[in-house]
């Protein structure tokens, strides 16, 4: 009986996708051990984060997707309430108020929005699937804008842009006309001066430092300079685990979170970077392959948005630490240290597996 129950618990788990995610989690723990200089408490906490995320992944993979559809509006409202609580009861760290202290762990509601926005927008388009009009698209933009504005107030520009992109993907896939997209892009270009004035001074300096990091090498350009030195010094084969000078001598900031990829590049070099790129590529490819097998719009919209979120998160983090885009503070999925971000990333995989394993049930 126990064997049957255990087998049933894993029957909706896609083995290939789980193997790829497992490799990323293992690599993340290995890098974290070096980045934290073998801090047992930090490593132990991350293992707990992974275990919680894995339990949630397994549970979500068994949930009937129709429940996602039913509870989507409620989950969206709860996530907005949590964002509102951050403004009143959240605590500040590194100049931003993004977390709520819940005794045993710190909750970051902006990470939860990465899941509730795709669910809510997919619910909206499913509800009006026989009459999708400009009014429906405007409602979707309004639903998307509310959390983005709240997250910008924290301030967290990186997460707000990421959520905006993932939500925009759903709106486009739901049938937004090319004419409207072109007009929207033109309007965005015209509004750039206003958007620039709305940015905080440190955010403006980060963008300017992208053009010339040496303009403020000990201030806004410090992170980018040290990160590029770390990755470049790794060479072809890397310096070896635990032998990265930038990491071990504490020149590189935020080694366990935002800049953990820099640690990896320094210690494992070009070969190691190519290896992790391959794993990420096949992880995303597997998710896309599963999405193509789904037989209804609701599942495809959610999966596409979640895949885009994971892809953009990965791209933004790696591009950020490589000096290609400004430093925005985005964790690397399945690798960076963090409770909410790790659990949410694994939850996304669980939802994708649920939609894939129940594809025939939803279609009927």
List the helices and strands and how they pair.
Layout: H1 2-10, H2 15-35, H3 40-62, H4 65-89, E1 91-93, E2 96-101, E3 106-107, H5 109-127, H6 134-152, H7 157-173, H8 178-190, H9 192-198, H10 201-211, H11 222-233, H12 245-248, H13 260-293, H14 297-321, H15 339-357, H16 359-363
Antiparallel strand pairs: 1-2, 2-3
Mind explaining what this structure looks like?
The protein is mostly helical. It has 16 helices and three strands. The chain has a three-stranded antiparallel β-sheet with strand order 1-2-3, covered by helices on one side. A hairpin with a 4-residue loop joins β2 (96-101) and β3. The longest helix is centred in the last third of the chain and has 34 residues, at 260-293. The mean pLDDT is 84.
In a nutshell, what does this entry contain?
This protein has 16 helices and three strands.
The secondary-structure element order is HHHHEEEHHHHHHHHHHHH
Q: Strand count, sense and closure of the main sheet?
A: 3 strands, antiparallel
The amount of beta strand, in percent, is under 5%
Strand order of the largest sheet: 1-2-3
Helix content estimate: over 70%
Uncertain spans, ≥5 residues at pLDDT below 50? none
Strands, count? 3
Q: Which geometry do the CA atoms define? A: globular
First-last Cα distance? 31 Å
Rg computed from alpha carbons, rounded to a whole number of angstroms: 21 Å
What is the SS-derived class? mainly alpha
- In DSSP terms, counting alpha (H) and pi (I) runs of 4 or more, how many helices? 16
Mean of residue pLDDT values: 84
